C-alpha cells in the first residue's frame, strides 16, 4: 500500500502545482525554461504513475474490503465511464460544444471516471486511488475556473460536426476499453 500512496503523492503532487503554487510554477518556468520544467514534470509523473500501477497491483492481491457494493453499481459505473471517455475526447477534438460549454472537459471527465470507480469498487486501494483522483479533480477544476474568472479565455467556436466527432471518438474508445482494454491492462472485465 505504501507504493500506491507514494505514487499518488508524487503523481498528483506534480499535477497539483498549478492548483497550489501557480506563481511559483511561473517563476520556475521563467528561471529554468520550459524544456527543463517539462523534463522534470515528465520524469516525476512517470515515476509517480509507475508507483501507482505497481502499488495498486500489489494492493489488489490482498484487498481490504471496506463496504458492500450495492447492486447495479457496475452498470452505473459503465454509463459514467462512457460519459468520462466522451469528455476526455472533447478535450482534444476541436470545435465541439462539449468543450465550449464545460471549458475543462478533461478534468470533469476524471471526476466522473473516479466517481464511477468509487461506486463500483469497495476496497481500501480503490478508495485511495479513485478517491485521490476525485479530490484532485475537484480542486483542479476549482483552480481552473478561478483562473478563467481572473483572465477570461477566448470564446470557443463549436460545430455540430466537431461535437459528433468528440462523441464518436469517446464512445469508440470507451467500447474498446470496456470490452477489451480494461481486462487486458487491469485484469478485470467490467462488461462481464
Description:
- By secondary structure, this protein is mostly helical.
- The protein folds into 2 domains: 1-62; 66-192, no CATH class.
- 79% of the residues lie in helices and 0% in strands.
- It is built from 9 helices and no strands.
- The chain has helices at residues 2-14, 17-20, 22-32, 34-61, 73-92, 97-102, 105-120, 124-150, 160-186.
- It is globular.
- It starts with a helix and ends in a 6-residue tail after the last helix.
- The mean pLDDT is 94.
- Keywords: Membrane, Transmembrane, Transmembrane helix.
- Residues 4-190 form the NnrU domain.
- It is found in: Membrane.
- It is a multi-pass membrane protein.
- InterPro entries: NnrU_dom (IPR009915).
Write the layout of secondary structure elements.
Layout: H1 2-14, H2 17-20, H3 22-32, H4 34-61, H5 73-92, H6 97-102, H7 105-120, H8 124-150, H9 160-186
Helix pairs in contact: 1-4, 1-8, 3-4, 4-8, 5-7, 5-9, 7-8
* Overall geometry: globular
The rounded distance between the terminal residues' Cα atoms is 28 Å
- Tally of individual helices: 9
The number of E-state strands comes to 0
Question: For the report, how would you describe the main beta sheet?
Answer: none
* Poorly predicted residue ranges: none
The radius of gyration is 18 Å
Structural class: mainly alpha
Helix content: over 70%
Output mean pLDDT: 94
Q: Domain count, please report it.
A: 2
Q: Which band does the percent of strand residues land in?
A: under 5%
Amino acid at each position: 500500500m505504501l507504493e500506491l500512496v507514494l505514487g499518488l503523492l508524487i503523481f498528483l503532487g506534480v499535477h497539483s502545482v498549478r492548483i497550489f503554487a501557480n506563481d511559483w510554477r511561473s517563476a520556475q518556468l521563467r528561471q529554468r525554461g520550459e524544456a527543463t520544467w517539462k523534463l522534470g514534470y515528465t520524469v516525476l509523473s512517470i515515476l509517480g504513475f509507475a508507483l501507482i500501477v505497481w502499488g495498486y497491483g500489489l494492493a489488489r492481491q490482498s484487498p481490504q474490503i471496506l463496504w458492500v457494493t450495492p447492486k447495479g453499481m457496475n452498470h452505473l459505473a459503465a454509463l459514467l465511464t462512457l460519459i468520462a471517455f466522451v469528455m476526455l475526447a472533447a478535450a482534444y477534438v476541436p470545435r465541439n460544444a462539449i468543450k465550449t460549454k464545460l471549458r475543462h472537459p478533461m478534468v470533469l471527465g476524471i471526476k466522473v471516471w473516479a466517481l464511477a470507480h468509487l461506486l463500483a469498487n469497495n476496497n481500501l486501494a480503490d478508495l485511495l486511488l479513485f478517491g485521490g483522483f476525485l479530490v484532485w479533480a475537484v480542486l483542479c477544476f476549482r483552480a481552473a475556473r478561478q483562473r478563467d474568472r481572473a483572465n477570461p479565455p477566448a470564446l470557443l467556436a463549436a460545430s455540430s460536426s466537431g461535437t459528433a466527432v468528440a462523441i464518436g471518438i469517446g464512445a469508440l474508445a470507451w467500447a474498446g476499453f470496456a470490452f477489451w482494454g480494461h481486462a487486458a491492462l487491469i485484469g478485470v472485465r467490467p462488461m462481464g
